[in-house]
Amino acid sequence: NKISTQTGIGTTIAIAGVAMYSFIKARMEEEKR
Fold first, then answer.
1. Which residues of the chain have pLDDT under 70?
2. Can you tell me the distance from the alpha carbon of 17 to that of 27, in angstroms, rounded to the nearest whole number?
3. Hey, where are the domains in the chain?
């Protein structure tokens, strides 16, 4: 049970990290123009 909880948290952080990275990258691309 504890392992599945840690896995869920890790997955959530990973997805959030990718989303944040994509969002920041897109904003930086728009600022260049």
1. none
2. 15
3. 1-33
